[in-house]
Amino acid sequence: MARLRLDHVSKRYGDFHAVRDVTLDVADGEFVVLLGPSGCGKTTTLRMIAGFITPTAGGVHLADREVTGLPPWKRNAGMVFQSYALFPHLSVAQNVAFGLEMRRLAKADITTRVAEALKLVRLDHLAGRLPRQLSGGQQQRVALARALAIRPDVLLLDEPLSNLDAKLRQEVRVEIRELQRQLGLTTVMVTHDQEEALTMADRLVVMNEGSVRQIGGQRDLYERPADRFVAGFVGRGMFLTGRVEAPGRFRTEGGLALACDGGASGPAVLALRPERLEIGPAPLSGLDNSLPGTVEFISYLGAASDVHVRLSPSDRVIVQVANRGGDAAPEIGATVHVGWPATAGRLFAPGGD
Ligand code: ATP
């Protein structure tokens, strides 16, 4: 039984569809991430779950109850905002108590729950402080404690880590995920950060232009992207445009003849990933494709380097080469050979990004 269900939910502003026909079931204890570029409708979707925005069509069901028209305080959703939205004149404890007071809990219960929530986020020693006396990371934890204190049916996180520096963000990711697991909290998080989504989610919902493009686990999205947009947004996708001449034969606009995996004849886009390509000084044997090219650019990224190779006047690929000590990466201007098995490429209809 789903803890949270969105049933054909849409939100229109005049003629503009901010969210279009989103259907999603989130299971009890599941951590689902809404991932997509800016403006794709993820925040609007989250706010419809929280009750800050009413859908123009469709229904929201939370813990076996239809909550579509209910205001936020009448549904049991705990939300953490990107800006934290703490009350500056209230202490940490008073901020955490806020949602409980709105729900008219008894004073003694409020005290117990506030202490409990602050302990969970390890801030019990700062209960009397004001928000401005806290670091960004601590403020973020107060916002989380405030959401947890209501013992929510669903925890909603709107880009909760975007105001933290890179190192802290990595730590807080793990902290939130551990806490979520320990409490068995059903959680929906919004982010545009692919790495954050991949490291935290049980399941991802990839959105673009108001619509869901694909729902799945990390491996599904990476290995079997539903369309060109997902292939480009999850992991790194490179695209060669051209046409399938016959099943298994692809010709790029730049004239390269490539082996591909099946495909119906006609215009198509071949998606490749830098980490699936191989590179060497001589033609690569045992691969369906091996093409000569010239190294045009190299970016050194520590564990690996990206080698940009020109294969034809209009075809360029990036090959990811692991840096294992030695000086394996070729040099700019060198002639190299790039290869991959036909199954490493995926064909998509042109357009669709
Ligand atoms: P971001 O990551 O930038 O926050 P998002 O994916 O969360 O983006 P939303 O905030 O959900 O995007 O907005 C989706 C679209 O709806 C955007 O194009 C936005 O401009 C539009 N939109 C949001 N609120 C309104 C409104 N009140 N009136 C008109 N259009 C709106």
UniProtKB/TrEMBL annotation:
Membrane protein topology class: Peripheral membrane protein
InterPro entries in UniProt: AAA+_ATPase (IPR003593), ABC_SmlMolc_Importer (IPR050093), ABC_transporter-like_ATP-bd (IPR003439), ABC_transporter-like_CS (IPR017871), Mo/tungstate-bd_C_term_dom (IPR008995), P-loop_NTPase (IPR027417), Transp-assoc_OB_typ2 (IPR013611)
Classification via SMART domains: AAA
Start and end residues of each ABC transporter domain: 4-234
Family: Belongs to the ABC transporter superfamily.
Entry GO CC: ATP-binding cassette (ABC) transporter complex
Keywords from the UniProt entry: ATP-binding, Nucleotide-binding, Transport
Location in the cell: Cell inner membrane
Gene Ontology molecular-function annotations: ABC-type transporter activity; ATP binding; ATP hydrolysis activity
Source organism of this protein record: Vineibacter terrae
Domain of life from the UniProt record: Bacteria
Name this polypeptide is given: ABC transporter ATP-binding protein
Pfam families per UniProt: ABC_tran, TOBE_2
